[in-house]
Design brief:
5 helices, single chain, 5-stranded mixed beta sheet, 8 strands, 176 residues, disordered C terminus
Length: 176
């Protein structure tokens, strides 16, 4: 199972594998391109994925987000301000992957809950990693569609023993 995390920040994209065998240098960052924004994001994801089949991708993005449509409209990316279907684009890239997108605030909250916190930019990427692991677990458990990250994390907050598969989340942090 190869899982990716993507952080769509105000000035850069950051991506990482979500597994136990990576180090800090596994986080790759690129500035948001002035043109062909998706092409830059796609190339970053493909570079991080390598030749592995990707089973889940978690995406942290500043709002607004329309989760039901998979659309994001981050103010810092002019080409995407009117809406970009990030979920559809990532699914085309990795057809076997479960894809979840959530606000950067939810991703930071996931990091606080499961890792005890991190630097803000790393917290968003770590939260996206947790989101990806939750998506992968949802697929493995055959949880019905419509049970998104907020539902799953709300349920898991009630379970004090929950740890997302004991994996490193963004290349630096392990669940506590």
């Amino acid at each position: 199972m190869t899982v990716l995390a993507l952080d769509i920040g105000p000035a850069e994209f950051a991506a990482s594998r979500v597994d136990g065998g990576v180090g800090a240098r596994a986080i790759q960052r690129i500035p948001i391109p002035a043109d062909a924004v998706w092409d830059g994001c796609r190339d970053l994801l493909l570079d991080v994925a390598g030749d592995d089949e990707i089973t889940a991708v978690g995406i942290a993005c500043p709002g607004p987000i329309d989760k039901s449509a998979g659309m994001i409209a981050p103010a810092a990316i002019p080409q995407w301000r009117s809406g970009f279907d990030i979920v559809k684009a990532v699914r085309r890239l990795f057809p076997a992957a479960a894809v979840e997108v959530a606000t950067d605030g939810l991703c930071v909250s996931l990091t606080e809950r499961y890792l005890g916190g991190a630097h803000h930019s790393e917290a968003m990427l770590a939260g996206a990693g947790i989101l990806a692991l939750l998506a992968a677990e949802r697929v493995a458990r055959n949880t019905p569609p419509g049970c998104g990250a907020e539902h799953v994390t709300g349920h898991l907050h009630d379970r004090a023993d929950y740890r997302p598969a004991g994996r490193a989340i963004c290349g630096r942090h392990r669940p506590r």
